Amino acid sequence: MPKKLTDSKWFYVAVSLLLAFILWVYVGKEANPITTDKINDIPVEFSGLEKLEERGLMLSDGSEQSVSFFVRARRDVISNLLQGESSITVDVSNITEAGEYSLSVMGQKINFPRSVSSDSLELLYTTPERIEFTVSRWVQKEIEVQAEFTGSVVDGYQVGDFSLAPQTVTISGPEELVNQVDYARVTVSQTDLSETYSKDTPYTLVGFNGEVIAAEGIETDPETVLVTLPVVKLKEVPLTVELVPGGGVTDIDTQVDVTIEPETITVSGSEEDLEGLKEVKLGSIELYKIFGTDTFQKTIQLSPELTNVSGITEATVTVTIKDLAVRTLEVSDIDLINVPDGYTADTVTKTLSVQIRGTEEAVDSVIPSQLRIVADLSDVTMATGNQTVPVKVYLDGSSEVGVVGDYKIVVSISR
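Predicted structure:
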């Protein structure tokens, strides 16, 4: 009589294996169920940036952003997603124009961790749903560097003019940002300066409206400027003029009055250069040329290492001769000397009125014969006919009286 199937031990082995498999499947599903979860901070990466650069374009906004995924998958897949590194790649190599772009996240390349297959999950939706970014034209331009001083100096000192190296800097970046920049500004704010300031200094970018522009997104070259601000000492210095005796003036202190307007100027320079500066000379004035009171305009000149802080370039000098008598004499003693070879010269002027000056007693004692007139023709251009030539008047026999003024006569020259 054949055995029943249930009497076979292999039957029970097969049943046991089947039950074990069913139990394994059941337990596996219960322990690793399908679930929905959110994966945060998935970074967005851009490829093809070198192509943008070749076209003079750049990614100016939106380069740093992230996306959150809402996925449906088994728990172990979710766990791998949370522990791994995912990313989104946006290819911008085909963009040829500047502008604002908005692309669907779902249409981009999504990179999951190696331990996760894209088939093992369902991507439900993302937040945000689109990736937005801006492509701008890349430009560069040179801008001027300007400097300002907001600090202070020690009493008796003054700042000079800024020296900047370089005087211009190059900025580059998105066209819409670069075009807002007017100039670069460096600021020196040190207080109580008593010596020249020199330092490599960063600068800020200033727009056409005068407001500071954030440098984020703009490249600068160089990043600092060598700023030199001279600090010099100030000194008030009197103006003087040299009076050359003559024309009967024998005692300048008592016989001459001099006024100079302004009396002083303020000069700046190094302490060493100012230490020996006692006065600023305006030149000389020959007293024999002055009749009573004369006024002169004198240029104020300084050595190159000094600066006229007052800004006054001319001084008015008034000279008055006082307490001296003036007398006019007719002089006929006229001599011509150094007549060139081959020429003859005769005086057309036979008598010349000459003024003399001195004390009243000394002037009254002079007689015309003490005066003689000499015309030196060595420097006269030889041309036939009458010419007016300068002469020198000599007064012999008196040291207290002098001739006043310049004189000329007419001579006739022939061959």
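Summary: The mean pLDDT is 91.
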